[in-house]
Amino acid sequence: MGSRESPQRYTIRPNERASEAVIRAVSSADDRDLHWENPLYDHIDPDALDSLFHPHRDRLHDDTTVHFDYCGYTVVVSAETVELR
Fold first, then answer.
1. What average pLDDT does this structure show over 5-21?
2. What is the C-alpha separation between 29 and 57, in angstroms, rounded?
3. Most buried by CB count within 10 Å: which residue of 38, 61, 77, 83?
4. How far is residue 42 from each of residues 4, 39, 49, 50, measured CA to CA in Å?
5. Distance in angstroms (rounded) separating the CA atoms of residues 17 and 11
6. DSSP single-letter state for residue 12
7. Three-state SS for 75?
8. What's the chain's average pLDDT?
9. How many Cα atoms are found within 13 Å in the side-chain-facing hemisphere of 57?
């Protein structure tokens, strides 16, 4: 499961939902497919996560972060990155 050596940071791609970026980051870090094995919705509401980080024209800089545990990692999501700790 998750490695706690040093934080791993993944950039959220243009037009990628935050929930998709979390799954991609953890899947990449652990080299496994999490879509069926450990669904994100068992840990956090993906729609709520996506709505927090949906791009808005009025937002120039947003320092909102969300922290939650998933697959042995503490996941930290911000407007531009997913960090695995």
1. 92
2. 32
3. 77
4. 22, 6, 13, 15
5. 11
6. P
7. strand
8. 86
9. 0
* 66, 77 Cβ separation under 8 angstroms: yes
Tokens of 4: 């706690």
- Tokens representing 29 are 């870090």
Closest CA to 84 of 32, 24, 15: 24
What does R_g of the chain's alpha carbons equal in angstroms?
Answer: 12
The tokens 């922290």 sit on which residue?
A: 67
- Amino acid identity for residue 32 in this structure: R
Dump strand ranges (E) for the chain. Answer: 8-11, 66-70, 73-77, 81-84
Residue 85 is encoded by which pair of tokens?
Answer: 């700790």
**How far, in Å, are 41, 49, 57 from residue 27 at the CA level?**
15, 18, 31
Band (pLDDT 50/70/90 cuts) for residue 19 is very high
